[in-house]
Amino acid sequence: MTEPAESATGQDMLAGMFAHAPVIFAALGGPDHRLEGANAAFYEAVGVGRGPAMLGRPAAEVLPELVHQGLVDLLDAAYREGEPFVAHHTGVLLGPAGKARQRFFDFSFEPRRDRTGRIVGVAFLAVDVTRQRAAHKLASEQQALLEQIARDSPLAEVLDGMCRAIEKLSPRVLSSVLLLDETGRRLRHGAAPSLPDFYNAAVDGSPIGPSEGSCGTAAYRREMVVVSDIATDPLWAAYRDLAQRAGLAACWSSPILSSSDELLGTFAMYHRTPQELSEDDLDLSIVFTRTAALAIERHHAERARRQALERELALSADLAFVLETSTAVSEEAHFPDNLRRLARLAVPALGPACVIDVVDDGRIRRVAVALAPDLPQRAEALLAAETSARAEDSPVRRVLATGASEVSTAAPAGAWQELGLRITGQVCVPLTARGHTFGALTLVATEDRMLDARAISLAEELARTAAAGAETTRQHEQRARLAHDLQAGLLLAALPEMPGAQLAASYRPAGEGLDIGGDFYDVFALPGDWWGLVIGDVCGRGAHAATTTALVRHTARAVAPLLPTPSAVAESVNEALLARPDSGESFVTLIYAELRQVRDGLAVSMVRAGHPPPLLLRADGTVTSPSPAGQLLGVSPDPELELESFTLAGGDCLVLVTDGILEARDPTGTLFGEERLVAALRSATGTTDAQRILDAVTDAVDAFTGGVTDDDQAVLVLVSRQDPSGA
Hints:
Blueprint lengths: L7 H10 L6 E6 L4 E5 L1 H7 L12 H4 L8 H11 L3 E10 L6 E13 L5 E10 L1 H21 L4 H15 L4 E7 L5 E6 L5 H7 L2 E2 L5 H9 L3 E3 L12 H7 L3 E8 L5 E9 L7 H53 L5 H10 L6 E8 L2 E9 L6 H8 L9 H8 L3 E3 L14 E11 L2 E11 L6 H16 L5 H16 L11 E8 L10 E8 L3 E9 L4 H17 L6 H13 L9 E11 L2 E9 L5 E3 L5 E2 L18 E6 L4 E5 L1 H4 L10 H10 L7 H16 L7 E8 L7
Antiparallel strand pairs: 1-2, 1-5, 3-4, 4-5, 6-7, 6-11, 7-8, 9-10, 10-11, 12-13, 12-16, 14-15, 15-16, 17-26, 18-19, 19-20, 20-21, 21-24, 22-23, 22-25, 25-26
């Protein structure tokens, strides 16, 4: 007697195993593959209502669209031959013609047998990988954009490529980026490759406000604005006719915010038909808004770097002029010949004419006159003999009295009129030494040679140099200020408030801080109540170190929300470093950790890439180093990195430092080292104040070195604070 097929109870048990699982399951019986049972995931995937009418019907009737896609043939083969069939990332159209939607599955057809081994049907198991596939394509497109950003591609090119990538991932979408203008009150065209030119021209310069379409309103509210039907939404009242001309029916826009939460612009996605925001479009908006922020911030940083470089070159040229002039003046040992040489060197570099007056025996005396070669030389004698500088209301007398420069738009009278120039003003600067003003240098301006701020500053610098007989420190101070401003832009303005933790940080540049260092740290929020924490050290100093630091920080911030582990984030940073044209000079040591508050304290997952080891100070005074070394980034495409996970209990402290701390030296050249750092931490045992622990470290270093800093020093301290509620 033939053994019975699988019992109904057995089928129910099998279906029950998958009833609430995300795995799609269906039991098919007989050569015509009748539906004998399925779980909820199956009915949700195929898009049909679950009901008794489906059971017992052949698969070709339940899902006729599978026939022409060859899936019924595969079921026939599995039933006939008794061999399972497995496929990965297979696209399947589900639904009737005209309303079909494509999904992607990993699936298998497994023959079902009765107790005698006879094939009685096929079991269908599948996993919907549509979103994973879309996420992979999304990550691939974003990686290409990050590489463009790392290569310092023009912002317009990056934003245009971003819009095109979005439209490739979601073909029904039209995307655009608007940029905040210098006034902070309007939005300018950034990129919109698929929107009509007339539309882009019309919205270029549109205001920010509470009812300015999707983009202007999103910038005003600083939150995403979703308009499902432009034709009826009041936010679009002023732009409705324009949108209708452009064939736009729905729009959602997100503000683009910097890492310091400053508005940079907006990112918008349009549709040609009214519709609600989909989950896929939301994913695209989140990812590419962050990418746009990274690109715009990088552009701003690069523009600031270029402007700083231009200022530095101009300042360098000015400094060279001042040094050359002051050297030449100092070589003339006789007074007032040195001032006469000063006047000759100031013309025509600073103006067409220069005179110098000094106080001699209580009287004002003109000691130097210099004219440009094309001016009538007879005027030199007239200016030398002029006495108007002695008048009670003259600029020279006021400068001698106050020791302050004076700028006037009035043309001087008397002998100055003999120059044949259209004089538009003059500047008079003091000659001061040891706090005593003993003379004044006067320059005139003409219509074609204005006395701008640079010329006035140079005149003052030359006067100070000649008067004091010493080198100027003006260029030194301004370069230090420029370096400080650039370095400040690479560090957090303020540490954020992290749940369950207290943070403190310190950064001190090497020496006098004239150059930009490569030490940095960052703390930022991540999805799911996680926080990212990073500290690192870039090889080298100066502008290259600044751009590398910006690349590492912004890459970590951009990819961390998208990647599953700190190791993956470090690997993405490594890829960004290697993608630079000058990657052979972009070496970085790094510690990247992700933390989240848990019941027992703070859960930490950490990876270390060639950076000095972190130190963990437990509440009982025990000090350990919880992270393996790992390989520094920017060297190898496949760095060796190990993930370390641990928990910071309440009162535990995590301390991260750069090598400037460990390699600080005392006057004999001895290194501060890890042992002294551990001792400094142990001295703070029992302290749960992050700032006091930080002070213990920096005070110990200062006491050891005498306050001399040969290398940049960064310290980041995190103390775990147990939630009183026990959460």
